[in-house]
Design goal:
The protein is α/β, with parallel strands linked by helices and about 350 residues long. The chain is built from 16 helices and eight strands.
């Protein structure tokens, strides 16, 4: 398996930037696809509805769970009905390699120098910085877990765990919980022995795992008491806390990553898709997302527009960023299909 480490540059750039701080719908508008739940609701209020009001172009929304296969099927069949797609970085890289995403012309979107390093890819532009973390229900433990190793400690912290049905992050966390240094995790995971070691660690909690696939599930699983702790996207947990749920985020070994905008290859609404990306990439628009869901902006000029107290709740705040492991989107762009197959086989055993 090939290995490329990426996110150290993004992490450093964020700190340096000072973050505390059927076929076509041309006649009807554009179709924008995202991840549902609180995140898509935040996008709707801060991007989709304002864009439609400003331009008169209707935004039709759809949801998915990040599968390149759905994009590939549309492109290969020549029936592209998705125009703009919210993707994570591994999906952006894989989709670009497979030729199912448009290669972006940044002259039609934004000055690349204004976008955080690592957030302006060939086929996708960063919309926000989020993190995959884990959280726990504070009513279940007098003193809650504080490290990723605690997540794997069934004796000290008994109860069901929620984990995304995805090898990404889970394998890294398993190795870190097993004693691998954060900056060595891909060195280990890039070997057959390392993959075996990660799955062996996952074996220790397999019987206690409830697997989730949609971002709205972890807060609900936690609130309902179906699990005592769960991996999740930080914004989903923060919004649940805001609504009164007794939850707490653990930032140890957080995996910072990017939500990105991409354009489906062969969309009949290419010009409108570019116009949407240009609008969504302005600092004035990006700054409005964080108050609704705590994800950091990618436009450098938007960084200073985030309120300092709010910035403390973002994955990009230095205190939180210091606990991150250097997530590698390139590793997963190269290895996702193979390791997803390994995970599915393991789950069936």
């Amino acid at each position: 398996m090939k290995q490329h480490l990426m996110t150290k540059g993004l992490v450093a750039a964020v700190v340096a930037a000072g973050v505390f701080a059927s076929v076509a719908y041309a006649a009807d508008g554009i179709t924008v696809v995202s991840w549902g739940g609180a995140y898509q609701e935040s996008q709707r209020k801060t991007i989709f509805e304002p864009y439609a009001a400003k331009t008169g172009v209707a935004v039709k929304e759809e949801e998915y769970t990040g599968e390149v296969a759905k994009i590939r099927a549309m492109v290969e069949s020549g029936t592209v009905s998705w125009d703009v797609i919210s993707v994570d970085t591994p999906t952006a890289l894989q989709g670009c390699d497979e030729g199912v995403l448009e290669v972006l012309d940044y002259s039609r979107i934004v000055d690349k120098a204004k976008i955080l390093p690592g957030a302006a890819l060939e086929c996708a532009i960063g919309s926000d910085v989020y993190a995959t973390v884990f959280a726990y229900n504070t009513t279940k433990f007098a003193e809650g877990p504080t490290t990723i190793a605690d997540f794997f400690d069934l004796e000290k912290f008994p109860g069901k765990r929620g984990m995304q049905k995805n090898p990404m992050n889970n394998l890294e966390w398993a190795l870190i919980a097993d004693g691998v240094e954060k900056d060595k995790v891909y060195e280990v995971l890039g070997t057959p022995e390392g993959v075996d070691r990660a799955f062996a660690k996952l074996d220790t909690i397999k019987s206690q795992v409830v697997w989730w696939e949609a971002g709205a599930q972890p807060p609900q699983l936690l609130a309902d008491g179906e699990v005592v702790m769960s991996t999740a996207w930080n914004g989903r947990i923060a919004n649940a806390i805001k609504e009164g749920a007794p939850l707490k985020i653990v930032w140890d070994a957080q995996a910072p990553d990017l939500d990105m905008w991409a354009i489906a290859k062969g969309t009949p609404n290419l010009d409108q898709a570019y116009d949407f990306l240009a609008y969504a990439s302005t600092p004035e628009v990006q700054k409005d997302l964080a108050p609704m869901i705590p994800y950091g902006p990618t436009h450098i000029d938007a960084v200073a527009l985030v309120e300092p107290e709010l910035a403390k709740t973002l994955p990009t705040h230095p205190d939180n960023l210091a606990l991150a492991y250097p997530f590698s989107a390139e590793f997963w762009g190269d290895n996702m299909e193979e390791l997803r197959g390994r995970l599915n086989t393991w789950l069936a055993q």
